[in-house]
Amino acid sequence: MLGQLSVLEVYDAIDTTMDATPPRLPAAVAALTQRRGRGRTGAWHSPRGGAWITVFLNAPPDPRLPTAVGGYLAGLLEEFLCGAVHLTVKWPNDVYAGGRKLAGILVEHRAGMLRVGVGVNVYNEPPPGATSLAQLGYGGPLALVYAAIIEAVMRAAEDPAGGVAEAAARDMLWGCRVAIESPEGLVEGVARGITSSGALLVETGEGTVELACCHVKAWSCSNTRPATKSSPAGGD
């Protein structure tokens, strides 16, 4: 997948890889540390030892991409752990291990470029409530993690449906009680899967709603997802 890039830039320190301006596309910009890294809901802790990178593509926006990248990335990172840990996807854009955040994804389309930013805790000390690949048993080079991120993004751009299906099979929120901030207000209910369009189904007291772009404010999981549920729920 690295061979598909026209430009690969690596900085010792940068404000944020999301604001870089590569000369050609497709490109990737990585940094050993970010001074002002950001995620969907605010600042992203980006110290040395983690993998912080943005992939820049000449592609249109696609609301499925955050979830699709998460699905592919979870599968690739899980391979590094030799099957010892099962990684899940917390809709819409995070990778988790054992209830702790491992990676996050931020997708923006501006200045004529699709920007897919990914941060993975590797050898850095993760913030409270998070984990790292090192804590999960990984001992390989940081370069392999960067390569996996680029591969996940490229796969998602080429086949977003496949990435969404992978995320749906790893859906951390299935069966959990959730509180989600949507443009229409707070939605509370039980998560019932990720659709093929990348939306989250939530069963409320007034019926099932489909949420395309929102923030999961809170969740509580006491139910175990059925082992046979391995495909996206619902339709487009």
Automatic annotation (TrEMBL):
Keyword set, alphabetical order: Ligase
GO molecular function, one term: biotin--[biotin carboxyl-carrier protein] ligase activity
Residue ranges occupied by any BPL/LPL catalytic domain in the UniProt entry: 1-165
InterPro entries the record matches: aa-tRNA-synth_II/BPL/LPL, Biotin_CoA_COase_ligase, BPL_C, BPL_LPL_catalytic
Recorded GO CC terms: cytoplasm
Pfam families: BPL_C (PF02237), BPL_LplA_LipB (PF03099)
NCBIfam families in the record: birA_ligase (TIGR00121)
Protein name: Biotin/lipoate A/B protein ligase
Lineage of source species: Archaea, Thermoproteota, Thermoprotei, Desulfurococcales, Pyrodictiaceae
